Description:
The structure holds two protein chains of two kinds.
Chain A: H1 2-15, H2 28-31, H3 34-55, H4 67-87, H5 91-110, E1 118-121, E2 124-130, E3 134-136, H6 138-154, H7 166-185, H8 189-205, H9 210-229, H10 235-242, H11 253-268, H12 279-282, H13 294-327, H14 331-355, H15 373-396
Antiparallel strand pairs in A: 1-2, 2-3
Helix pairs in contact in A: 3-4, 3-13, 4-15, 5-6, 6-7, 6-8, 6-14, 6-15, 7-8, 8-9, 8-14, 11-13, 13-14, 13-15, 14-15
Chain B: H1 3-33, H2 35-46, E1 47-52, E2 59-60, E3 66-78, H3 80-84, H4 91-101, H5 105-112, E4 135-138, H6 143-151, E5 159-168, H7 178-181, E6 184-186, H8 189-195, E7 209-211, H9 214-218, H10 220-224, E8 228-234, E9 240-247, E10 254-257, H11 261-280, E11 287-294, E12 300-306, H12 320-328, H13 348-357, E13 365-368, E14 371-374, E15 377-380, E16 388-391, H14 392-398, H15 401-414, H16 427-434, H17 456-476, H18 479-484, H19 486-502, H20 508-515, H21 525-537, E17 540-542, E18 547-551, E19 557-560, E20 565-568, H22 573-589, E21 607-613, E22 622-629, E23 636-643, H23 648-664, E24 666-667, E25 670-671
Parallel strand pairs in B: 2-10
Antiparallel strand pairs in B: 1-8, 2-3, 3-4, 3-5, 6-7, 8-9, 10-18, 11-12, 11-23, 13-16, 14-15, 17-20, 18-19, 21-22, 22-23, 24-25
Amino acid sequence: xxxxxxxxxxxxxxxxxxxxxxxxxxxxxxxxxxxxxxxxxxxxxxxxxxxxxxxxxxxxxxxxxxxxxxxxxxxxxxxxxxxxxxxxxxxxxxxxxxxxxxxxxxxxxxxxxxxxxxxxxxxxxxxxxxxxxxxxxxxxxxxxxxxxxxxxxxxxxxxxxxxxxxxxxxxxxxxxxxxxxxxxxxxxxxxxxxxxxxxxxxxxxxxxxxxxxxxxxxxxxxxxxxxxxxxxxxxxxxxxxxxxxxxxxxxxxxxxxxxxxxxxxxxxxxxxxxxxxxxxxxxxxxxxxxxxxxxxxxxxxxxxxxxxxxxxxxxxxxxxxxxxxxxxxxxxxxxxxxxxxxxxxxxxxxxxxxxxxxxxxxxxxxxxxxxxxxxxxxxxxxxxxxxxxxxxxxxxxx
Amino acid sequence: xxxxxxxxxxxxxxxxxxxxxxxxxxxxxxxxxxxxxxxxxxxxxxxxxxxxxxxxxxxxxxxxxxxxxxxxxxxxxxxxxxxxxxxxxxxxxxxxxxxxxxxxxxxxxxxxxxxxxxxxxxxxxxxxxxxxxxxxxxxxxxxxxxxxxxxxxxxxxxxxxxxxxxxxxxxxxxxxxxxxxxxxxxxxxxxxxxxxxxxxxxxxxxxxxxxxxxxxxxxxxxxxxxxxxxxxxxxxxxxxxxxxxxxxxxxxxxxxxxxxxxxxxxxxxxxxxxxxxxxxxxxxxxxxxxxxxxxxxxxxxxxxxxxxxxxxxxxxxxxxxxxxxxxxxxxxxxxxxxxxxxxxxxxxxxxxxxxxxxxxxxxxxxxxxxxxxxxxxxxxxxxxxxxxxxxxxxxxxxxxxxxxxxxxxxxxxxxxxxxxxxxxxxxxxxxxxxxxxxxxxxxxxxxxxxxxxxxxxxxxxxxxxxxxxxxxxxxxxxxxxxxxxxxxxxxxxxxxxxxxxxxxxxxxxxxxxxxxxxxxxxxxxxxxxxxxxxxxxxxxxxxxxxxxxxxxxxxxxxxxxxxxxxxxxxxxxxxxxxxxxxxxxxxxxxxxxxxxxxxxxxxxxxxxxxxxxxxxxxxxxxxxxxxxxxxxxxxxxxxxxxxxxxxxxxxxxxxxxxxxxxxxxxxxxxxxxxxxxxxxxxxxxxxxxxxxxxxxxxxxxxxxxxxxxxxxx
Lengths: 398, 713
């Protein structure tokens, strides 16, 4: 490991931004997964356009319709910078510091409970106030921390052919369950679902015994049903989860969102109304369409073709994540990549699915596209981590 | 990497791929397959319409005088939603409002109840409009009261007083014409449903007021015009972000009626006079009608119904008390077009025509005995007069029933008598249908009655409808009646037994009764007028018309109504001319002579036929006077009737004479067309002139019909 790390540093200092001509060799820029990077950048740019369109009407200051966009662009720059730093992380260092990252993230996750710091948005007490009018959603970073922690725990055995021990399995499960419990208390149902899916995916790919996996999935389903049955889930939480089944009958707030979202998307047709021209978007009929419902802006203003392009870009990104996981030369790398893959995939499906009326409405953003600094930063860090895994595997090929 | 890990990663990949495929196909379904639906929803979502109703078109008489116009009135409305949010659902506010309006709280609250809810009064008192629409509860509120309401917003939450355009029904010469003009009311939920999904800007809206009867109803679309609709783009908070579309109002079209206001006023007064004459003779004289038509084209020049009501009563809504008295007085329906009465002897023209058509000689002499016997039944002449052997003309003049019994009997025998089948000939009924009886005349008014022609077909129809009841009664034998009056029960039972077994049969007695307009035949006075007009014009039954043209508010002619032929009398020319030659004799030497003594019949010969129809039960006979004039050059047909009014000659005749005098400008025995109530002595051929500002040019001076000499407006 140390050797690889050293060579990375050496290459880096030597090569810089260019490539090393036609000769065979390695360098940070050369070995980067460019397809991953470009699809991420394209999604970020597309997202910024959509955020601009959605925020012009009411989020921006009356004198400057671009003010919200400007704030968003600052977030974008910070996020990409963080992603770059993440891609530069020392693999071993990362693994060594995982417990600290996890602990710090968990500490942040508890902050929303502190009065004066915590902020409740749309029923979820999942934000903390920062100076300068900024807010932070610690659960976004927690996703990364959980992935890193689980990957570290489940790859304890150096021999990659060995399946994880029962102890490792339970430890990994606990690493996921603890923040899930906290986030559940914060009423952030969407994030709970995503984290649950991520945890199951990582455990599955870690190669645990099939029995355990089946028990885990069965247990998860049983827990959800039991929670509904015992009324542990509050009424509005159940309503949120079920209103998508028959949105036309329900007249509650989440059904309103679902209907308005579908009107916006359905109205887009093949080619859309054009940027800034969507009546549903510009009239702010769809709630939070700069963030959770950003896909409705794409649906209405870019139409079917533009939105399929958006979905394809997300698909390309996930394809790269899957390939990085596939080619990873060690279990830790594979599990980190798998975690990121599952996270981004299910979050995308849940987010777009809810705007299309096939998934329940939960408050989670569309990766790289929605406004919201924390999410943007977390996803770019995740892309950076994917690059780290990729760089590690490329160099291992020598 | 372990096989298991690889396999699971592949499964995860496939799962993610299928989720994305689901997203794309769902997106395709929403945007491409169902896109149109959502686009429409999006349009509705983000726009608000500001609707200003167009100025409703005026209804003018044939000379250009406004029969219905517009004025503004202060109307007090209540927003029920807002009221319900107040303490005790706004009871205090209603009481307060009732006090300053000088009415009872109940009369206000009863109007707020939606029709069909528990405890709600019947339409039109209950609220028939939309939940979100403000309910008008008082009109013509004085400005001071309105000011009080608008100033004390907190005391009158949900109550608004505003200036609204309402209809003004005070026509010239005090004409009433309520049954012709009709009235307005809020659009009903059914009409909105009936319209279906429409996004036309001139569609019916819940806030619309539409014609509910009369011409206001029949020509509602034309009169209503098109509202000005400004479509504003709004955001979720209702802030206007732009104007999408602006449609200017198109004023409603004007109706040029065939009615002459001055003649209408004369006819209305003469109908009342006839009713009073009936009542003066001690008869109930409870209802009546009078119709004046132009025999050459079917235009209705005047049409009155008794009893009538003040059409202005509907403006701003009618109270339960007012409505109850309206219903009780039976004045809402028009006796001229909706009332059904036995025609009596006026129907003899039909029997005569049938005889002529069947080839019986119209110039032979017939026996006119006092009565004819048919089994146990005796069929008498009026006042049991006998005239011996007389011509058919004379039989018409003196209205000899027994002559027509004889003719009917011969026709009945010829068709097979008692052995006839359902499909056997029925000349009198067929001829009656030809004259337009038994079917609506086609007048441009809603809710016209068709009437019934008694005959073979009717008998069968009636039997099929009532057979079950008759047969059941024949078996049970009226147990209730039997307790008190066994004899009557026996009689009823025997009657029903016969009806049950044999009720479909067109019997001799039926045929005899039908021939003189008795029995089951019922007609409307308008049908009668059109039938006599057809005799007058040589055989054309026109569809009567109340509107001769529709004009734009700018004076352009939108549509001129051409005369419409309903049917041609399929009779030998000789039959029609026989009737034309015989009927004037009724006025000179027959049953119609008395009211026309002193009338210049040598200058204006009048063809007429009286009728005194017996109605089952102990009611007094219906007084009919059907006529047209001048008999030698027919122009107008006049029919008047008074139910339970006595004879045609005594009750209706004198009023018909007065109407002819007004029409032809007769004073004493001199005829002066310049003195006619019609300007120039005849209905105007030209259409009225409408000035660019929308005001019609009305006749000047006395002929304007306006008391204050503002005839030059």
